[in-house]
């Protein structure tokens, strides 16, 4: 229970006592359980090197005593660990090892868990079709076995996949399905996490009031459960929402609340994320020195715990700050570092974002040919992985670029594509931005009546 509530220090204390007793009496099964639990505590705290060490100890004991089911379960743990570190190929490898054993011994619930874990790995890598396929397999098992909680977890996983692809209406539908089951079976954890995910959906859609509402719902449940990790996560996301709304001082307040809890829990990854987002807040306020200071703090932690994914995001944020203060060579260096890291860990969406950021940098420098080249690389990846919002954003970027170059017909063509996609996925904020761009383009084409119409549509939204 301590671990579920995020009380890692207490949990670790109990595990160490149990491990000492199990070692003393030679109970290898309990020793393996304690090693796995210790690994999970360390992973939750962001101490990935030590966590891996304990997971490997547990695997070795399971093999020694011939416990196939325990071995499979323990393989899934380092799989989750490598996913946290951004080592997605390794994560997939370990989840596949777990799946092979669970299939051999006929552990249906375990097989479903492996399918969901693999789906999660494929989602982060931008392999959305494969992710959906694995979550659907897990869902089928849960339904056949009448495992309602498993069914809810599958709906939650599928919701995340659809959100990543910019299919927000579908994502909302699946998160609501999970909440309905969570309420039916009295699973408050599922209910809280799905409310948080719905907050994320509405945040992406630019519906900040609704995002805030759902994060508050999640926070209320987590507070009642005494789930400190969930509380911190809700504060963190609310901080992001207030930042998006331009309420920077409120954003800082919530992020600082999250930071306090993450530090109390010893959650290094959560701490690093808070520092990076605080860096964003200070950048928005124009406090660039402070912004860099916070991003560097996040970078130092991410490097120390081997979190390649967040290390890349820190480089990205720092690159954008350097671009804002006119240090373009430094900006290019950091943005390229972020892109290379994303490519190295198989993060296709991160890679697409990296090319997009570099495209924006070259556009600001007036290097339009190079900017077009990078935007086209972004477009290619977003299409490959099925990221509809990313694709629409890229069309807008290309439209703006061709407008700068005086190629208004081409600019109009690209922005119209963006409008079409934003409408399809229900992204009102994106639709408004695209209409504004379209109004500017047709104005440059001399179509003033049409331009006024598009600008009015943007204003309405």
Give the key terms:
mainly alpha, globular, 461 residues, Serine Threonine Protein Phosphatase 5, Tetratricopeptide repeat
CATH-defined architecture of the domain at 1-106: Alpha Horseshoe
The average pLDDT score comes to 92
> CATH superfamily name of the domain at 1-106?
Tetratricopeptide repeat domain
**Continuous helix count:** 23
Query: How helical, in percent, are the residues?
Result: over 70%
Structure commentary:
By secondary structure, this protein is an all-alpha fold. Among the domains are: 1-106, Serine Threonine Protein Phosphatase 5, Tetratricopeptide repeat (Alpha Horseshoe), CATH 1.25.40.10; 292-379, Tetratricopeptide repeat domain (Serine Threonine Protein Phosphatase 5, Tetratricopeptide repeat, Alpha Horseshoe); 387-461, Serine Threonine Protein Phosphatase 5, Tetratricopeptide repeat (Alpha Horseshoe), CATH 1.25.40.10. Helices cover 86% and strands 0% of the residues. The chain has 23 helices and no strands. It has helices spanning 8-25, 28-44, 48-65, 68-84, 88-105, 108-124, 128-144, 148-164, 168-185, 188-204, 208-225, 228-244, 248-265, 268-284, 288-305, 308-324, 328-344, 348-364, 368-385, 388-404, 408-425, 428-444, 448-460. It starts with 7 loop residues before the first helix and ends with a helix.
Would you kindly provide a brief summary of this structure?
The protein is mainly α and 461 residues long.
